[in-house]
Input
Amino acid sequence: QVVMVAPQQLWRWNGNDWVAVAAGGPPPVTSLVVYDEARQVLVAYEPSQGAPWEWDGAAWTQLATGSAPSAREGMAMAYDEGRHVTVLFGGFDSGSRLADTWEWNGATWLPRTTSSAPSGRLGAAMAFLVSRHLARSRVERSLAGHPDFAAIDRAIGQDGRRIVLPLRLSP
Output
């Protein structure tokens, strides 16, 4: 289901119309919202408010947290279904672009030290690629009975740039 969080409002898209939802109290002013599948809550985060908010389908609750990302704008956030954490990256803070990564596990923000990362950026978007991680075993089982598809899958895994474009251009 698709929901939209706006200052003092929560809306649900039913496929034809936006329907106002009684949110059980005022929702936070938010920059980013993701759905935490494991805990079945919306996670809304606006760094200027410190801690994230969660909506359990009935009420908003602001969670207590120790360390947290610094106040910023334009950060990117997505829920990682494979690891059951919300990942936040980058943004803009007092004149500089940030390239830091944080994870929210439902109780604590954890800064992540990375050996490589994109450069600092403002206004990026993030998404979890379900097919690449969660559906992989199902795809592999399906390919087992089709050697042609299995060969294409192996070729893409080895040198995808040279394979994907011709496949997309072929009739």
User: Anything to note?
Assistant: The CA atoms of residues 54 and 61 lie 5 Å apart. DSSP finds three helices and eleven strands in the chain. The two ends are 35 Å apart (CA to CA).
